[in-house]
Amino acid sequence: xxxxxxxxxxxxxxxxxxxxxxxxxxxxxxxxxxxxxxxxxxxxxxxxxxxxxxxxxxxxxxxxxxxxxxxxxxxxxxxxxxxxxxxxxxxxxxxxxxxxxxxxxxxxxxxxxxxxxxxxxxxxxxxxxxxxxxxxxxxxxxxxxxxxxxxxxxxxxxxxxxxxxxxxxxxxxxxxxxxxxxxxxxxxxxxxxxxxxxxxxxxxxxxxxxxxxxxxxxxxxxxxxxxxxxxxxxxxxxxxxxxxxxxxxxxxx
Length: 253
Fold this sequence. Notes:
The chain has 253 residues and is α/β, with parallel strands linked by helices. Helix content is 35%, strand content 27%. The protein is built from nine helices and twelve strands. It has a six-stranded mixed sheet, with helices on both faces. A four-stranded antiparallel sheet has the order 4-3-6-7, with helices on one face. The protein has a two-stranded antiparallel ribbon with strand order 1-2. Helix 3 (109-119) crosses helix 4 (126-139) and helix 5 (155-167) packs parallel to helix 6. It starts with 5 loop residues before the first strand and ends with a helix. 38% of the residues are buried.
């Protein structure tokens, strides 16, 4: 899958490489035989209805769930084979945008953004931390919210701050889990356009899990369609719109 150059069985420009991934829960297969490449600098959307295995795939990628079979490599590292310290080191290079944003309710926006800089990157220079926080707030057009608490923000604002907290770590890869869930169509479009803009600026490779075709159309260079734990179609928006598979066509109606 994909057009990456292959040397000794390794995709040379792949930042995520999944081969024959399987996972079951209580005897029920969720991922049946997943193969996927995320290329460097690419936005890849995985489309599918709820319960098809999209979020499980992401959790396997960052080692939150251990697969039953197959191999998941991130930046050339076999995730399941990593010791705890090596896995933590890898996760620093992978940003994860949770569905709900996962902001700390007891911290201001400014404190939420500073937290990974002090806790993960171990930065101690207050001037540098403050500068990075204000720079990323400008990028997501929410500089005025620095002193606000998450409870004072709209759903769209919380999504932007969550994205800012991911970007402030300057990750090589960003994983988005349903980034537009719970948002109205206008705010969803704004968030999707921001994801596209940030990818173009920071050149991170992004995997976008979504059931929102409008989000996928705006953000993705390439799409995969998942159904019942397998990928049933791959291509650009234009290519998939012409597909005659009934389940794929349902996303374009």
